[in-house]
Specification:
The protein contains 19 helices and 15 strands. The chain is α/β, with parallel strands linked by helices. It folds into three domains: 204 residues, P-loop containing nucleotide triphosphate hydrolases (Rossmann fold, 3-Layer(aba) Sandwich); 201 residues, no CATH class; 74 residues, no CATH class. The protein has a six-stranded antiparallel beta sheet with strand order 9-10-11-12-13-14. Strands 2-3-6-1-7 form a five-stranded parallel beta sheet. The protein starts with a helix and ends with a helix.
Length: 516
């Protein structure tokens, strides 16, 4: 079987008999295969330890270590007791680590924030460097995954920041939400702690070692790097708006580097040679510091992928500026603005025309636009006249005259010739001059350069589609409901490239088709 099929079978086995735990199992396995750590936040009884115990069944002959921290936990309980024999015979202070954390592949530390400073310091080195300092020597630990858990965030003011920063994936585990699944869970009789992974799906040490080398070769393309850069800028902007430092999203350089490793691992497990935008959704679980920040981070990631994913890789902002500058240059050279004025009617509230004052009878009178428009030169019609408050004051016979904007009104057996109020409106029209041959040649060269770039980008989108679009939504670690976000960005970029092509061709048509 191929690698992707093996991981899918492995995940099916790990999640068998569990409810609403698919996502956290996927993240726990991903963190293990990436050589990173995961922090599970949640109240007692939601399955934090179950996740850790299930994960060990993914590996053949895995050595696991599990410990519940208390305020009184000592380094001996986590890293092993001091070897009395070494101390007596060789005067060396060394621990017997084989059955403890340094000798394990999978480690689960519950209530992690109760760890003493001496335990914390040793954990920092193990997590970051995969090394445990045992007396005078450094021991390379074969730690595949460290799963930590707590029902609270690290206490403020107790210097847990360095340890919390090293826990790459963070997941807020909550109780089962679905009513039907809840009933199935509480009435189920399956042994949830039993090994449900078939042997053929379990991962060997040799496989893992080979995978680690291959993961390093996974490419990180420009669209992914651009996406990360924009998300980083969004986080900085978000932090500037926060009045309290504790509400900021703190993501430092080391964490970004670890995120790249995680994304490479995701691409590798999906049998791709490069990271894609679907992998980028996994960053959501790496960037929040407090649970209430999760929705904000998720929105940042999704919005960036939707708006900027392939847009920046294609270079759309640069392309827009280039074509706009080209258009402005051509128009400034070939278009000559010629301004004239014309007499036009000025409607009041788009409904009335005002009559010019003609004695007291028609001072401040208005006629409706519709009434005036239906009048004819030969025939007489009845129209309404309104005062300055647009109240009806007269109903008179009226007709248009040959003279523009003039009408006649019959009032008190007299005929009055009246003109509607007008104003002088500026009207611009353009004359065009043919460009000089040298200028025309320069524009042709510029057009060809931009046109070639557009053609290459459109071809890349159509004929050499990114692997994310070739594979479709079949990502084994990311919810396929997020797929339309990636697809939407690709579609928008394609449509904008077509619009920019039309704009470019329109500019060329302008300067090529001016007659002498």
């Amino acid at each position: 079987m191929n690698r992707k099929e093996k991981i899918k079978g492995l995940l099916e086995g790990l999640t068998q008999g569990l409810y609403e735990r698919d996502e956290v199992i996927k993240l726990a396995l991903l963190s293990a295969l990436a050589g990173e750590s995961i922090f599970l936040l949640g109240p007692p009884g939601v399955g934090k330890s179950l996740i850790a115990r299930r994960l060990k069944y993914a590996f053949r002959q895995a050595r696991s270590f599990e410990y519940l921290m208390t305020r009184f936990s000592t380094p001996e309980e986590v890293f092993g007791p001091v070897s009395i024999q070494k101390l007596k015979e060789e005067d060396k202070y060394e621990r017997k680590t084989e059955a403890y954390m340094p000798g394990a592949n999978l480690v689960f530390l519950d209530e992690i924030w109760k760890a003493s400073s001496s335990i914390q310091n040793a954990l920092l080195t193990i997590i970051n460097e995969k090394v445990y300092r045992n007396g005078e020597q450094e021991i390379a630990v074969d730690l595949k995954s460290l799963i930590t858990a707590s029902n609270e965030l690290p206490p403020e003011g107790e210097n847990f920041g360095p340890l919390y920063d090293r826990l790459l994936i963070r997941y807020h585990l909550q109780g089962i939400s679905g009513g039907k699944r809840f009933i199935q869970m509480i009435t189920g009789t399956e042994e949830v702690y039993s090994d449900t992974v078939p042997k053929e799906y379990k991962l060997s040490k040799e496989e893992l070692n080979q995978w680690q080398k291959e993961i390093q070769q996974i490419e990180v393309p420009e669209e992914v790097l651009n996406t990360i850069q924009v998300i980083r800028e969004k986080i900085e902007a978000y932090n500037q708006k926060q009045k309290e430092e504790r509400l900021q999203i703190k993501v430092y350089d080391r964490r970004w580097k670890k995120i790249i490793r995680l994304l490479r691992t995701s691409a590798f497990l999906n049998e791709r040679a490069a990271v894609n935008l679907m992998d980028c959704f996994l960053m959501t679980h790496c960037l929040w510091n407090r649970p209430e920040q999760y929705e904000e981070v998720a929105a940042m990631v999704s919005d960036t992928i939707r708006k900027h994913g392939y847009s920046l890789q294609i270079g759309l902002p640069m392309l827009r500026r280039e074509i706009k500058d080209f258009e402005a240059e051509v128009e400034s050279e070939v278009k000559i603005r010629h301004t004239t004025t014309e007499e036009v009617l000025r409607p009041v509230d788009d409904t009335y025309y005002e009559l010019q004052k003609n004695g007291e009878d028609f001072a401040g009178r208005y006629v409706q636009v519709n009434d005036y428009n239906r009048l004819k030169v030969a025939d007489q019609e009845v129209v309404n006249l309104y005062d300055e408050d647009f109240k009806l004051v007269n109903r008179l016979g009226a007709q248009k005259t040959e003279e523009e904007y003039t009408l006649t009104l019959k009032h008190n057996a007299q005929t009055h010739r009246l003109r509607l109020k007008t104003y002088q409106k500026e009207k611009a029209r353009y004359l065009y001059k043919k460009p000089h041959k040298l200028v025309h040649q320069y524009w042709e060269e510029r057009y060809e350069k931009i046109n070639q770039y557009l053609t290459e980008r459109r071809q890349w989108l159509e004929e050499q589609k990114p692997e994310a679009l070739q594979q479709g939504p079949g990502h084994i670690l990311v919810d396929e409901k997020l797929w339309p976000v990636v697809e939407a960005n690709h579609r928008q970029v394609k449509e904008e490239l077509e619009d920019r092509q039309f704009q470019l061709d329109k500019i060329r048509h302008l300067y090529q088709n001016i007659e002498e």
